[in-house]
Amino acid sequence: MLLDEKYNEIRDMVKKFADSEVAPLAMSIDHEGKIPTALIGKLAENGFLGSYIPEEFGGAGLDYQSYALIVEEISRSCASTGVFVSAHTSLGVWPILNFGTQAQKEKYLPKMASGELIGCFCLSEPNAGSDAGSLTTFAEDKGDHWEINGVKNWITNGKEAGLCIVFAKTKKTPDYKGISAFIVETKTPGFSIIKEEDKLGIRGSSTCQLAFDKVKVPKDALLGDLEKGFRVAMATLDGGRIGIASQALGIAQAAFDYAIRYTKERVQFGAPLSNLQGIQFMLADMSNKIAASRLLIYHASHLKDAKLPYSKESAQAKLTASEAAMWITTKAIQLCGGNGYTKEYPVERYFRDAKITEIYEGTSEVQRIVIAAAELKAVD
Ligand code: CAA
Description:
Radius of gyration: 21 Å
CATH architecture of the largest domain: Up-down Bundle
Number of domains: 3
Mean pLDDT: 97
Order of helices and strands: HHHHHHEEEEEEEEHEEHHHH
Largest sheet: 4 strands, mixed
CATH topology of the largest domain: Butyryl-CoA Dehydrogenase, subunit A, domain 3
Bound molecules: acetoacetyl-coenzyme A
Strand content: 15-25%
Low-confidence stretches: none
Number of strands: 10
CATH superfamily of the largest domain: Butyryl-CoA Dehydrogenase, subunit A, domain 3
C-alpha cells in the first residue's frame, strides 16, 4: 500500500532505532524476562511513548497511522517491547486523551509522554475475560472519595505501571451497565501486585495480577461518565486492537524475513532451499498474508484518523494479522527445520510471541463476534 511520504520517513526513523537499540537486546529481553529500564528511557526520548499525545501535552502529536507503524517496527525487533509501547499508548494514554477532562489530561499526559508514568488497562478479572461486562471489582461512593476493591488479571505493564485505567462497578448489576472507569495511580495505598505470570511468549513484557484493596481515589478520578465505563473500555479496545494487529504484523514480518534469508542460504540436495517450488509456494503464502494484514491495519488506522467508524475494521485487522502471525511463524520454523526449533535461532521466539496476539485485547473468537455483529447490523 502506498503511504504518504511522511509515513515512510517515520517508518525509516523507527526502523533505524529498532535495528540499533532494540534488536540487539531482543534475545536477552526474552531470556531475562525484562525490558531494561535504559531502553524504556530511550523509547520515551524518541517520542515513542507519547506518539499521538498532542504537542501541548508534551507528546509528538502524530496520528494513529504513525503509531501503528511505530508498534509494527518495534515489534519486528522485539514483540515484548512492542506490546510495552502498545499497551501504554493505546490502553493507557488513549482513554485519557479521549474521555479525560482537561485537568486529567494536563495532570497525566505529559508524564505519560516522558515515560515518568507508564500506563496499563485493568479490565479483565479471574472470572471476567471475554465476558468483560461480568466484572465484579467495585468502587463504592464514600461521599468525598471512591473506595475500590477487586482483583485484575493478565495486566500488561502491570509491573512498570504508575497509572492504571481501572474498570469497576459503581452499581451492582449482573452485566456491563453499572461499570465506570477510573484513573488510579499505583502509588495509592492498597494497590499491590499479587503475581507476575510466567508465560510462553512476550516474556520481557510483564503480565500481572493486581489487587485493589480499599484503594481510596478522589472523586475526580472518574474517567468519562458515571456508569458509562463499558463504552470507555470497548472504544479503547477498538484502537488497542490496531496496536496488537501491528505487533502481530511486526512479528510475522520478522519471521518471514528470516525465512527468506535462511532458505536462500541453506543448501540441501545441492542447491539453496529457495530454489524448490514447494518452498517458494510457502514463501508466497506468507507474503500474501503479510500484505493482507498490512492493508487491513492501515485501512483501520486511516478510518480512525479520519474519525470514521472503525470497530469492525480494527477487529478484522487484529483477527487477520494475529492468525497470519501464528501461521507464518509456524511455517518459518518449518522452513528452518531443526535449527528453527532451537533457541539459537530467533524463529522459535517469534512463534512463542505470536500466540498471544490471538488472545489478548479480545480473542480471535471475540473479534469474530464483533465483525459478525457489525455485518448483521448493516443489513436489514
Ligand atoms: N465502542 C463503544 N461502545 C461499544 C462498543 C464499541 N466498540 N461495543 C459495544 N459498545 C457498547 C454498546 O453500545 C452497549 O452500550 P449501550 O447499552 O449503552 O448501547 C454496550 O457497549 C454493550 O454492548 P454489547 O451488548 O455488544 O456487549 P456484550 O456484553 O455483548 O460484549 C463483547 C461484547 C464484544 C464480547 C465484549 O465483551 C468484548 O469485547 N469482550 C472482550 C474483552 C477484551 O477484549 N478483553 C481484553 C482486555 S485487555 C487485555 O487483554 C489485557 C491487557 O493488558 C492487554
